[in-house]
Amino acid sequence: MESIVKYDSKPVLKDPVFIEVLPGIGNVGKIAGDHFAQLLKAERFASIFSMNFPPQVIPDDDCVIRMVGNELWYAKAPNGQDIIFLKGDYQGSTPEGQFILAQDVMEILLSYGVSRIITLGGYGTGKIDRELHVFGAVTRAELKDEMERCGVTFNPGEPRDGIVGAAGLFLGFAQLNGIDGLCLMGETSGYFVDHGSSIKIIEVLGKMFSVDDLDLGELPEKSEQLNVLTEKANQQDPDSRDDLNYIG
Amino acid sequence: MESIVKYDSKPVLKDPVFIEVLPGIGNVGKIAGDHFAQLLKAERFASIFSMNFPPQVIPDDDCVIRMVGNELWYAKAPNGQDIIFLKGDYQGSTPEGQFILAQDVMEILLSYGVSRIITLGGYGTGKIDRELHVFGAVTRAELKDEMERCGVTFNPGEPRDGIVGAAGLFLGFAQLNGIDGLCLMGETSGYFVDHGSSIKIIEVLGKMFSVDDLDLGELPEKSEQLNVLTEKANQQDPDSRDDLNYIG
Amino acid sequence: MESIVKYDSKPVLKDPVFIEVLPGIGNVGKIAGDHFAQLLKAERFASIFSMNFPPQVIPDDDCVIRMVGNELWYAKAPNGQDIIFLKGDYQGSTPEGQFILAQDVMEILLSYGVSRIITLGGYGTGKIDRELHVFGAVTRAELKDEMERCGVTFNPGEPRDGIVGAAGLFLGFAQLNGIDGLCLMGETSGYFVDHGSSIKIIEVLGKMFSVDDLDLGELPEKSEQLNVLTEKANQQDPDSRDDLNYIG
Amino acid sequence: MESIVKYDSKPVLKDPVFIEVLPGIGNVGKIAGDHFAQLLKAERFASIFSMNFPPQVIPDDDCVIRMVGNELWYAKAPNGQDIIFLKGDYQGSTPEGQFILAQDVMEILLSYGVSRIITLGGYGTGKIDRELHVFGAVTRAELKDEMERCGVTFNPGEPRDGIVGAAGLFLGFAQLNGIDGLCLMGETSGYFVDHGSSIKIIEVLGKMFSVDDLDLGELPEKSEQLNVLTEKANQQDPDSRDDLNYIG
After folding, report:
1. How many CB atoms within 10 Å of residue D223?
2. From CA B74, how far away is CA B68, in angstroms rounded?
3. Is D96 in contact with C60 (Cβ distance < 8 A)?
4. Each residue of B114-171: pLDDT tens digit?
5. Taking a contact as any Cβ pair under 8 Å apart, which residues of chain C between 206 and 225 contact chain A?
6. Whether pLDDT at B241 is above 60
């Protein structure tokens, strides 16, 4: 393993499901996953550092630094399912680095007996008016029924350009290791941070893990801000374009 | 070995010939090799994954993903000769990666007792009117006679800029390992996908492996499309240039 | 260890403090650290060479070359504290290289039982009129009191973009290894080499290590040159901009 | 060792001197070294292949390929001195690759008990009128006297930007290993291939290795061509600039 892994604790987990939560298109996956982890009161148990992240430390409001990296968090879902989240501000800095990081995290997951791998991302349509589908991709066709019952749409052969970065690589490594993998992609324009699209992903995750009371916090309000501005833009208000940029 | 190799099966092969079939100039080699493998009813027996390919998975029409990589296929030629094909959508992403991948595949080939290495490619002339020669390069001069009998032309010192990427590297590694290697380069303009040039390579391969009935499928028709447009371009039809771009 | 380390001597050091002194914003950290090392009559004890530095040798006035790299120097402060300095003309050439180099130096430092890690840098404000604060960042909040007593200012959450390169990485590795780490950042415009800002860092170091007689040598004079030109620039003298460039 | 080394033979050499002969400024070093190796009837004994060279093979006039790499040749000078030459069409493709290649070659040289390391290069002045000095750099000052007697000039602190690539790295590695190293840099404009400058280096090498009869072959004639065109250019013949480009 090329990465440096620093454990806060070594939780005992039973057949955990893994959810990848990293930045990407419209930050849809990261917002959804971070919120869902918070809902389940997830706790960090490990930090991952690597030459494949930017060589950088970030000071907090106390001027105490933390090194840029990724983190592993765990939580128990209401249905009793153990979950491991991969969280962080960055994906690997290079294609090679992304591969190595996914491989290293996979090694940790296998040691925990991971039973399923879920990756989160955005599905950029390039259109400001989007319908907020949650599109899916899977490592084997038999997984589609269950996902459709949770509200996921399957769009044959899409996305045409493939699923890139961590959201794709963890699916690939799942398949290589004979573990079920699925990707949830929130439809979004790709131009703005899209809390509305994240809500849709959270709703799917809520059904998957039997979370009855989905406290969405400030997400609906933030989503509404974008909706208002998008509508204005559609009414050809010449000022609204700038407002949209401001949100992005 | 840096690559990850996943076997579907481990076929027993006798002194197999290796044919490299990857994207390149005019996609000439890839179209020819993929068609020839299909003619011989080749079957995949291994997949190769690596940090040296794009970090990406591709969904099929069932939304089932596959990780970007290269594949090894095998077939038996009508003359009884076992063949291993290297197929894929990508060459390595960097020069270093191309070297490492070729080295890793070479290690597999040596374990199979590979007896000969053939690489396929395009030979870009920069001229729209091309003659569709199949040009050759070899790891030792004694191989030229046999190839000439199969329709290959030798153009002293050509290509001047060398043979780059997998088509070159596998020749080099063949030579390093004392294995006979030859490169078939289909003459092409370099501007368009050139099915006509691929047909010429298939004809050479057909002679080499005693394939009497060369079913070319849709290739002649696709080739004709380019010929028609090329002729139009030569008659200085001002619209044809766009048509040609459309095909490319 | 990937780096090549060449020892001039292996000094016996007691719980040494490490000070990182490499080029960066306004060269503030390098000028300060090099001057402070000279004040304490530091001596070189090791040179570090690596593929992560430019592939280059530099001839001196005798036409005798030295290979580009980093160097370790040591000194004893007036208060009896052993200090190791990391000096050099270059940081690693790539992000990955910077990480590897910091990791290798850290390994050496741990073998010396390093007790504290101090990194020096500039804090670019983008404003020509700067106040010459020395801003700080720490690996744990308890270190702030002592630093404030030495004249360091803490600016919550700053720098927003994080601390990059060696000055950041050594803090991060300190934290990972449970060693106290602190970063001193001299406020500067970021446009010019800023000896005035370096003086402020030297004054902080002087207090930390009980250096009563801080011989600043030519630094005040060089600092004054920039002040004069800055003032001229503020008086909108159209010629002064070029003068400033000349100094930079 | 990361490189692949293929031996033609393993010559027995006594305290050999190493001469680095690779492409660089004005190709001065390569032309000089290749000619000198030919004068001494050098023979190739090893080829070096690596991911750090372009992934490429070159066909000869027989359409037999050779893989791009570097080569080791050996010869005996008239004074009985064994010499190893490093020859090739390329330096490493990246800074890291250049370092690794030099390190690997160094390992071979040390196994041969190399007694001295000489690197050849051009010294670009940016001026078309050049004086054709051979400038020197050394790993220790005591080597200068001997070199001055052979016609080498020492220009304190020059070249200011250092000596980069293989010509620099081998000097650095010589110094690291306590082996005498010297660099011969032929003065040249840096704009053209400069056979005249190469002749000057050959003359220095001739004195060093007691080669009485320096057959310069076609070099004086080729050098004269550049001189004629340079003179024309100085007489402000407007056509000559193009001619010069043609030669370059």
Report:
1. 20
2. 20
3. no
4. 999 999 999 999 888 778 999 999 999 999 999 999 999 999 999 999 999 999 999 9
5. none
6. no
Between helix D240-247 and helix D219-234 the angle, nearest 10°, is 150
pLDDT digits (tens, 9 = 90+) for D57-95: 999 999 999 999 999 999 999 999 999 999 999 999 999
* Share above pLDDT 90 across residues of chain A, in percent, rounded to a whole number: 86
* Whether A189 contacts A125, CB under 8 Å: yes
First to last CA, chain D: 37
B96 touches A at CB < 8 Å: no
If you measure CA to CA, which chain D residue comes closest to B158?
D59
- Residue at B40: amino acid letter: L
Q: Does residue A158 contact residue B61 with C-beta atoms inside 8 Å?
A: no
Three state DSSP letters for D67-94: ECCEEEEEEECCCCCEEEEEEECCCCCC
Look at residue C112 and give its three-state secondary structure: coil
Distance of residue C206 Cα from the nearest chain A Cα, in angstroms: 22
Beta strands in C68-158 (DSSP E): 70-76, 82-88, 116-124, 134-138
Asked if the Cβ–Cβ distance from C138 to A60 is below 8 Å, we say no
> Which residue is associated with the tokens 């003298």?
C237
Cβ pair D162, C56 in contact under 8 A: yes
Q: Where are the beta strands (DSSP E) in chain D?
A: 4-7, 17-21, 43-49, 56-59, 65-67, 70-76, 82-88, 116-124, 134-138, 163-164, 180-188
Specify the length of chain D in residues.
Answer: 248
Q: In what order do the strands lie in the sheet with A134-138?
A: A4-7, A43-49, A70-76, A82-88, A17-21, A116-124, A180-188, A134-138
Mean pLDDT of chain D: 93
ipTM: 0.92
pLDDT at C236: 61
- pLDDT, residue C218, reads 94
- Residue pair C232/C243 in contact (Cβ under 8 Å)? The answer is yes
Q: How far apart are CA A117 and CA B51, in angstroms?
A: 20
Is chain D adjacent to chain A, meaning 3+ CB pairs within 8 angstroms?
A: no
Chain B residue numbers touching A163 (CB-CB < 8 A)? 56-57, 59, 65
C window 159-188, beta carbon within 8 A of A: 159, 162-165, 168-169, 171-173, 175-176, 181, 183
Q: What are phi and psi of B233, to 5 degrees?
A: -60, -40
At D173, the amino acid letter reads: F
Tell the residue number behind the tokens 């996979």, with chain if given: A106
Could you tell me which chains touch chain C, where touching means 3 or more CB pairs under 8 A?
A, D
Q: How far is CA B184 from CA B109, B158, B159, D13, D221, in A?
A: 19, 12, 12, 42, 41
Nearest by CB to A162, which of B51, B58, B61? B58
Residues facing C124 on adjacent strands: C188
Mutate to test the interface with B, among D47, D65, D90, D94 (most CBs of B within 10 A): D65
Q: Which residue of chain A is at minimal alpha-carbon distance from C96?
A: A51
Distance, CA of C127 to CA of C90 (rounded, Å): 26
Judging by DSSP bridges, how do beta strands C56-59 and C65-67 pair with one another? antiparallel
Residues of chain D contacting residue B154, judged by C-beta atoms under 8 Å apart? 63
Rounded Cα distance between C152 and C144, Å, is 8
Predicted confidence (pLDDT) per residue in C189-207, tens digit: 988 999 999 999 999 999 9
**End-to-end alpha-carbon separation of chain B, Å?**
37
Torsions phi, psi for D237 (to 5 deg): -65, 115
Residue in chain D closest to C5 (alpha carbons) equals D176
Is A157 in Cβ contact with B55 (below 8 Å)?
no
- D153-168 pLDDT, tens digit per residue, is 999 999 999 999 999 9
- CA nearest neighbour of C154 among A65, D151, B44: A65
Looking at chain B, which residue has its C-alpha nearest residue D66?
A: B172
